[in-house]
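Quick one, T. Sequence first:
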Amino acid sequence: MKRLAIIGSGDLGQQIAYHAATDGHYEIAGFFDDFKNAGEKVGEHVILGKSGDIATLFSQGDFDCLMIGIGYKHFEKRKECFNTWKGIIPFGKVLHTASYVDPSCTIGEGVFILPGVVLDQQVVIGDNVLINVGSCIAHDTVIGAHSFLSPRVAVAGFVEIGSCCNIGINSTIIDNLKIVDMVQTGGGTTVINNLTQAGLYVGTPARFVR
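Structure tokens:
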């Protein structure tokens, strides 16, 4: 079994480690974290070192692949970390066995799909995307790189969601819409028109806040 290292040992990093191990995807090598010291324990796993140690430990064979455990409050850092190592160190991928991913889907590197997710025919998921529990993505929809979909998000067919978007819990997006990069929706938002400006949207129907 390949050994997975995770950048970031906070809540998201620990969640990736938990599902990757308990669902039988990877052995967990440990975390890289610039705010902790090598050898410290976080939960059941150890801090391998800081980000500056990644290349050395990979070359030594201490781990086989990476995933990014940096959350939606730090999209730029999340994106930067992924782009730094893309093509240099392999990225892992956790598609929980309690989710349904149609064989026609295209799934990028570093993707984390949690239990209960449904991805329908011809869905495209970009690199480093997280799709949280119970979300449903209908046919021919595209989710851009580094984006987060919160629990129970419902996205209809032929939707295009940009990169570094954070779609809030229980948000609903009707079909044939486009959402630009760096959009956030509040919980329960209903999107019925294209979202053409980056920022926060809330309500039913969605309205721009800031």
